[in-house]
Amino acid sequence: MRYLDEFRDPLAARTLVEHIKRRASRTWTIMEVCGGQTHSIIRNGIDQLLGDAVEFIHGPGCPVCVTPLEMIDRALEIASRDDVIFCSFGDMLRVPGSHQDLFSVRARGGDVRIVYSPLDATRIAADNPDKKVVFFGVGFETTAPANAMSVVHAQRLGLTNFYLLVSHVLVPPAMTAILSSPTNRVQGFLGAGHVCTVMGTSEYAPLVQKYGVPIVVSGFEPLDLLEGVRQLVDLLEDGKAELRNAYPRAVNNAGNVVAQQTLDDVFIVTDRPWRGIGMIPKSGWKLSPRYTAFDAEREFGVGHLEVEESAECHSGEVLQGLLKPNECPAFGKSCTPRTPLGATMVSSEGACAAYYQFRRLGAPAHA
């Protein structure tokens, strides 16, 4: 394993920045479709270093942020039951539902537990046969294999008290929705490297061909991101729409075939609503018929819950790249990490949280 410092070398970063700024004949609009990349860009000041060469617009790459409000409310209703132990990763606990969050449920006595793996939840189910144990399965293709394995493991153990509340979404359909929108401004994409470690790069090729937009798969360290941007700017200046892999130490064309086989076994593709965006066809997963006994929505009868977003929260426009977080009237005022209106302000990968934490509070450079 190479040291991370190798990918944070300031001299190498300066060389890449100078190349990008020298090569760019105009301001190119690039979208990163990963909240981790967004935070790395803002934390390391890459958006500021590139000046007028590149405008970054932040896509719907934060899985917590795009989890629909009605799914949060379903989680809250389930977690409030006396016979339930509700398990989740920690970043979901402060995401606001219509009237409360999971921390509020726990404060009132609900058995809400933070776990570090979905397999922790299966162990809790085995240790508490008198309780119904629910794991909140949220995320993109990156976290889906582990969540799928929890269901497989529960079935092998013969657990009848373990359930998965599924809110998995897929990256390529979201990119398709953005590219096909009449308000689209994206000229090039930085692909999410961790998604591609699972799914490979091949599913991006049809997007490049159909929409004529270059896509470069990138990692998360400063040099990873700058190299991805360098390749994108070179392609854009040369008028080429190509798919490239700038993260070869972790990503290949085929991806993790074993993980894909598990996903194909446990899940089937379905339409999914995205918070602040709306329904995107064939953009998510649900449990396949073979595993419906583990479906929390079915077990607790909460699939009917539907709610409306706050009119004051503009996170949907942020997630679509139509608005910078600091352009939102509520940003830093009625919406802060302590009083969030939407998930983009509380998620560890949310664009609004990144702008607030790393002091991008003024007018954006490319407003």
Automatic annotation (TrEMBL):
> By its UniProt entry, which InterPro entries does this protein fall under?
Hyd_form_HypD, HypD_1, HypD_2_sf
Family as reported in the entry's similarity comment? Belongs to the HypD family.
Alphabetized GO MF terms: 4 iron, 4 sulfur cluster binding; carbon monoxide binding; iron ion binding
Q: What is this protein called?
A: Hydrogenase formation protein HypD
Q: Provide this UniProt record's keywords sorted from A to Z.
A: Iron, Metal-binding
One Pfam assignment:
HypD
Originating species? Mycolicibacterium sphagni
GO process annotations (BP): protein maturation
